[in-house]
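W.,

You were right to be curious about this one. When I first looked at the sequence I had no strong expectations either way, so I just let the prediction run and decided to look at it fresh. Below is the sequence, 263 residues in total, followed by the output.
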Amino acid sequence: MNITFLGTAGAIPTANRTNTSLWVEFEKTAILIDCAGDIFQKIKKYRLSEDKLDHVIITHGHIDHTYALPALLEALRLQGRKKQLHLSICESAFKKQYQILDLCNLLQREDGFPIIFHTIPLIDNYHLISGCDMDCFTYPVHHLIPNVALRVTNGFMSMTYSSDTEPFEGFAAFAMNSDVLIHECLVAKWFSEPLTGHSRTDQVGKIAQKAKVKTLYPVHFSPRVDENLQQFQDEIAQEYTGTIVIPYDGLQFRLKDDKIEKI
């Protein structure tokens, strides 16, 4: 399982970070989780296997997680894609996203490719994708609007992505014993009180510790986080004794043979 951070920022991008989006690739398939920035350009820039892309997952309807979807679908069409694409959207955001794609003339085109739509229900441990080399489960989280976290596994190792959420009972059980936890961490303790719908450094550390994850990658940063990345990491480390990696846009790593390797 190879994971690429296409973006690591929250709703406000910076000069070095665009909005959070992830690429998860296996031997035979790939998943794009949320859709922000110029995804097609990033596929080329980071030398990702475009032909493997079978699934796009939209965790919730906020614009920083959805705005690049029409541009990606159009770029794939213009590139000559004919292979079908599965598009899974949180049920609360489904109608609006479908309307946007329809207004952009991206559906039911003779010169396009088949898009297979799926709604993601707000059900605990929903089995969204089952494949020959991977499985993906979803779990409702506590954000400002309905939203889901994801857990992706190849049968041997697993990655959990929180999407946008505040801490709550239940998430640690969903993420329990993950090899990697990618958790939103919008703000740090040194400059912010706890926020509704989002998580702070000390809270993320406690979640990772409770879930007994091996490695934590915080994401979805406020622009202020980059003012002092060491202090940001130290605040998490006060609550979490595992490995902490502060990712940057374009960071790639591999889960293989019970190891996490930077690519």
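Here's what jumped out at me. The CA atoms of residues 142 and 168 lie 7 Å apart. And, maybe more interesting for your project: The chain has a mean pLDDT of 97.

Coffee later to discuss?

I.
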